[in-house]
Specification:
- The chain is mainly α.
- It has one domain (2-161).
- Helices cover 58% and strands 7% of the residues.
- The chain has 7 helices and 2 strands, in the order ββααααααα.
- A two-stranded antiparallel sheet has the order 1-2.
- Helix 1 (29-70) packs antiparallel against helix 3 (83-90).
- It starts with a strand and ends in a 6-residue tail after the last helix.
Length: 167
Amino acid sequence: MVIDYRLPATPFAGTAIVSQPCSVPPLTGMSARMSLFERLSRIASSVSSVGRADARQRFMELAKEWHEATDHLSSPSQIAMHPAYQRIIGMGPSAVPFILEDLRRSGGQWYWALHAITDASPVPPGVRHTSREVEEMWLRWGREHGYIEGHGYIDWMVRSVGVGASS
């Protein structure tokens, strides 16, 4: 028998489908939950470490191109419509931790990309904020949602889908 483990999209990698032979009947209750959690953890760490390195490299190349081409511009639409920025948005959720890291380190107009990818909006509408205030709101959002400050894949999986969480 073959079981497909479908891992949820994470901040670090897209959905992964990993087929593994399984001849043991499924366990039930808490032992099954922990057993599945342990198996998913091992699979996820091997899948996401490769995907994360590739995503980071791709992001760094695109962000460098984007910064060089747009850091001198003042038009938000020109900045956000740059092809490298659009390709970063196309990376989806895997780009979010890298965007937040770049925002913290270099600043920049990442708000459109963050909103497009996450559909989040931590900035209250109708009130004018400085660029620094908006940056801080997004960084706080990133910490609260486990994208920055050391929250790894397993922490994200436990919070998101309850795998391994005690009942």
